[in-house]
Amino acid sequence: MGKTYKPAKSDKFAFGLWTVMNRGADPFGAPTRKPLDPLEAIRRLGEMGVYGYEFHDNDIIPIGTPAAQRDKLIKRAKQIGDSVGIRATMATCNMFSHPVFKDGAFTSNSAKVRAYALQKAMNAIDVGAELGAKVFVFWGGREGTEVDSSKDPAVALKRYREAIDFLCEYVLDNGYDMKFAVEPKPNEPRGDIFLATAGSALAFTYTCAHPEMIGVNPEIEHIRMSGLNSYHEICQLLEAGKLFDIHLGAQKPLRYDQDIRFGAEDLKESFFVVKALEDYKWPGTRAFDAHPYRTENEAGVWDFVEGCMRSYLILREKVAAFNADPEIQGILAEINEGNRALEKLMSGYSRESAAELKARAFDPDALAKKQLRYEKLDQLTQELLLGVR
Ligand SMILES: [Mn+2]
């Protein structure tokens, strides 16, 4: 037997409860799997070495549950979590399943729907805080339009911000240790969803009253639905200190939300995402948001869970190999040609540095002649990933 790639709690893997509770229904067909009890899902994930679980309010507490029953369910979730060493790491509010949200929650044209959404979010934040979740995510799946005459996006975003600002104050007022993260997605279920990309969500956070409390939760599949590069999007958030949570999965580009097992479709891009998280020692949980193929039965759900984690661990090992590979590192050193004097001149503006730069003689033709060995670099990366290196 070779390596086991068995997850440890210290790997900080997390799964959305909805990922394993997913029953395989799609817009064209009924469920193919039996319902899975959320408490059973927590237990099983904990036993498999998973560190945390993420949940929607209604994953654990169905709409309309009486208060006494709600408290009992929370207590039970805590007990089971403690017994198998798994905790709630992220909470979120389902503002998309119930038909009341058919035209949005925080951006609905109806003041009553917006108020109900705010009430539901506060209740979900309370549950999240009780279970110890430090991150609360807003995926505005219904915040959007099919008909552009129906909603002014500028007004919608103002309403979105008002809701987030209100909820930030709610968290502060209650003394909860919790931050928010907006999860962007370009479309599906709406024709167009507001805050479609990581960049638009990032810009939105700076317009809020408490930008320090609000970050972004990028999802690989959502990024690839737009045909964008998930490695680039995630690195922008890392660099801005705004990567508050992450959703790992896989997806063919420019299609419906396929939500498949991490690493299954985009090996090289997945590798660079893992590389970014590991090289920057990002402290958050490695959370998976995808679901088992519709063709799986109940047993296959756990193959899906195991597969996501194994792929991450294998790619993490490949990252270490990449970082230690003398030939790869040699090319990288060759590409990253430094110049201490010039770097000093460029590191901050002064009249003197500007004048000195303007007076410098450069030979662009000579500079352009340098070979950049990207053919070799990419082939070596490829061979490393294919296991022949
Ligand atoms: Mn997600």
Note the main attributes of this structure.
binds manganese (II) ion, 16 helices, 48% helix, TIM Barrel, eight-stranded parallel beta sheet, alpha/beta, 2 domains, two-stranded antiparallel sheet, 389 residues, globular
Quick structural gist:
This protein is of the alpha/beta class and 389 residues long. It has helices at residues 17-21, 38-47, 57-60, 67-84, 111-131, 153-173, 198-206, 220-225, 230-239, 267-279, 298-324, 326-335, 340-346, 351-359, 364-368, 374-385, and strands at residues 13-16, 52-56, 87-92, 135-138, 144-145, 179-182, 192-193, 214-216, 247-248, 286-288.
Structure commentary:
- There is one protein chain.
- The protein is α/β, with parallel strands linked by helices and 389 residues long.
- The chain has two domains: 9-324, TIM Barrel (Alpha-Beta Barrel), CATH 3.20.20.150; 326-385, no CATH class.
- It is 48% helix and 9% strand.
- The protein contains 16 helices and ten strands.
- The chain has helices at 17-21, 38-47, 57-60, 67-84, 111-131, 153-173, 198-206, 220-225, 230-239, 267-279, 298-324, 326-335, 340-346, 351-359, 364-368, 374-385, and strands at residues 13-16, 52-56, 87-92, 135-138, 144-145, 179-182, 192-193, 214-216, 247-248, 286-288.
- An eight-stranded parallel sheet has the order 8-6-4-3-2-1-10-9.
- Strand 3 (87-92), helix 5 and strand 4 (135-138) form a beta-alpha-beta unit.
- Helix 2 (38-47) packs parallel to helix 4 (67-84).
- The radius of gyration is 23 Å and the shape is globular.
- Manganese (II) ion binds next to loops.
